[in-house]
Amino acid sequence: MDNPAKPAAEKTKPIEEISTKAGKNSTKVVKKEESGVVDASCTQIRDLFLKEAKSMTRYAMSSGMSEIPDYVYANIEAFSVEYEEREREKHRLKGAYVFDQSKALDIVKLVEAHDLLSNAIKPATPRTVLLLDPVFADRSAFSWLSPVPLLRRLMIVAFLSLAGFIGIALSPYVSETGGNIFNSNGIPLLVNLMFFVCSAALGACFSALFQANSYIVSGVFDPKFEPSYWIRLLVG
Collapsing DSSP states into helix, strand and coil, what is residue 17? Predict the structure, then answer.
């Protein structure tokens, strides 16, 4: 026969090798055992779904939404307990930790709870609710300004622009005729131009903050549009 049957030892492979890109010109082999034991990084999607579900649960409960079934809360609590146990194992085993999928809760239940909560909080989106959740908010020295990083940066730029606007306005070079680029030169012209830049930046910051605030209030703010705010700020 041209194609003899392969020996039984070759038919069953306990480990499946998958080549994935690990860099520009290199590949990394990820080994996945049939038992369901995989690398710990495979839980990233599960963890993201859980974070968003917990944030949406807090948002729904604090907003008085009563149409969410009780089993959704029970499922989220079960996945939260599993997450805490997994984090303790990661801390204990360090780099030796692997995620045993066969012993984990069925992620389909988490996806169903996530979907129900997403529909319940509309028009707000899970990403916005997670971004505004103080439990998962980024901690920094300026967190008291806003839980949203973009708003914090815009407020800082607005404060600096206001300080520059007031400080430069006190200069004797700023006058009715000092800002004429055709009649002024040197330091007086530079001071007046800086005054105009600060005033324009201040107005652009206020406009961007007002627009971003409207999206945040409605719960549809999306961080992927952050570059557009800075572009509008630069063009004045």
Answer: strand
